[in-house]
Specification:
By secondary structure, the chain is an all-beta fold. The protein has a domain of 187 residues: 7 Propeller (Methylamine Dehydrogenase, Chain H), CATH 2.130.10. It contains no helices and 29 strands. This is Carboxy-cis,cis-muconate cyclase. One of its GO terms (cellular component) is cytosol.
Length: 344
């Protein structure tokens, strides 16, 4: 098992790094090894993998977009790029069965769908640009729409989260064209960032970056009705310093929700009750500053959070029973990390 971490390349980082995850002390202890650069590229703040292919955000100076790399004879080779003038996207999602990629560009307001081949060749299928329909009141919102997420729903429609417009938009890709289906509006100033869905596909949990909240919503993906269940803070009530909620994950069994907090520098753990309301279980430190992303291995036994500002990561053991995280390795050096992905 390996860990891949990418992020900004403004200071020390130069691309995507690989860290081995191995057993020591006769298998009684799991540790992460030393980070080694495997792909040299500008600003791989988000990336996805399909077997021997890696698709990553590429900040190429005055151009931005995505690039593909393929593992050939033990080394990653660049296969293709799709770059345009201006800023790079903030998010890239993947459907490895359909060979589709989904990108959200925070700065330009654009959502895009790409196809890819087994050799990593990229083709733009369609794109749409959000308009300033419901801009929120916060300084980060008044300059326009800011989609921060674009990926598939349980029924394989598409969903985007727009921080500027405080909303979740649903689309369908039909005849290679994106068709808007529905919109769910969060409260003003929520800062809609990322979203996860319950295993049964009847609920979603959307995190607000600017509000540091999680909104639980019941929805029907056939008639597009929405029922706002409840909203929960990811930070303590008495915490008054700046915080930006970032990544949100849901366990495969649907019993636990996890959110990273940049500012409070923690991961908040919620238990999902039978009525899909949430119960706070834990707020655990990330032992660094500005944890934009975290992720777990396929078994969900281990979690790694990376701290962008302090160039370090933390490895946790996860309890499947109560969802709580126990740190088992701290101060793992990784420069400017913003994306965490376990790899076989």
């Amino acid at each position: 098992m390996k860990l891949l971490i990418g992020g900004y390349t403004k200071k020390k980082a130069t691309g995507i790094y690989e860290l081995p995850l191995y057993n020591s002390d006769k298998g009684l202890k799991v540790e992460l090894g030393t980070a080694k650069e495997i792909i040299k590229i500008g600003g791989p703040t988000y990336f996805v993998q399909d077997q021997d292919l890696i698709f990553t955000i590429n900040n190429a100076g005055d151009k931005g977009g995505i690039s593909s790399f393929q593992l050939v004879d033990g080394a990653y080779q660049e296969k293709d790029s799709y770059l345009t003038a201006g800023s790079s996207p903030a998010y890239i999602g993947i459907d490895s069965v359909k060979h589709l990629l989904y990108t959200a560009n925070y700065h330009t307001g654009a959502l895009a769908v790409f196809s890819y081949t087994a050799e990593g060749q990229l083709t733009l299928i369609d794109s749409v640009t959000h308009t300033a329909d419901t801009l929120g009141p916060r300084p980060e919102q008044v300059d326009g729409p800011h989609p921060h997420f674009f990926d598939e729903t349980p029924a394989q429609n598409l969903v985007s989260c727009d921080l500027g417009n405080d909303c979740v938009d649903f689309y369908r890709l039909q005849n290679n064209k994106l068709e808007h289906l529905a919109k769910y509006q969060n409260e003003a100033g929520f800062g809609t960032r990322h979203i996860v869905f319950s295993p049964d596909g009847n609920y979603f949990y959307v995190v607000g970056e600017l509000s540091s909240k999680v909104n639980v919503v019941q929805f029907n993906e056939k008639d597009w009705t929405f029922n706002n269940i409840a909203t929960y803070s990811t930070i303590p009530d008495d915490y008054t310093d700046h915080n930006g909620a970032a990544a949100i994950k849901i366990s495969h069994d649907g019993k636990f929700i996890y959110v990273s907090n940049r500012g409070h520098d923690s991961i908040t753990v919620f238990a999902v009750k039978e009525d899909h309301t949430l119960e706070l279980k834990q707020r655990v430190s990330t032992f660094g500053e500005f944890p934009r992303d975290f992720n777990w291995d396929p078994s969900e036994q281990f979690v790694v959070a990376t701290n962008q500002n302090t160039d370090n990561a933390t490895l946790y053991k996860r309890s499947a029973k109560d969802g709580c995280l126990t740190p088992i390795q701290k101060d793992i050096y990784v420069p400017e990390g913003t994306r965490v992905l376990f790899s076989e």
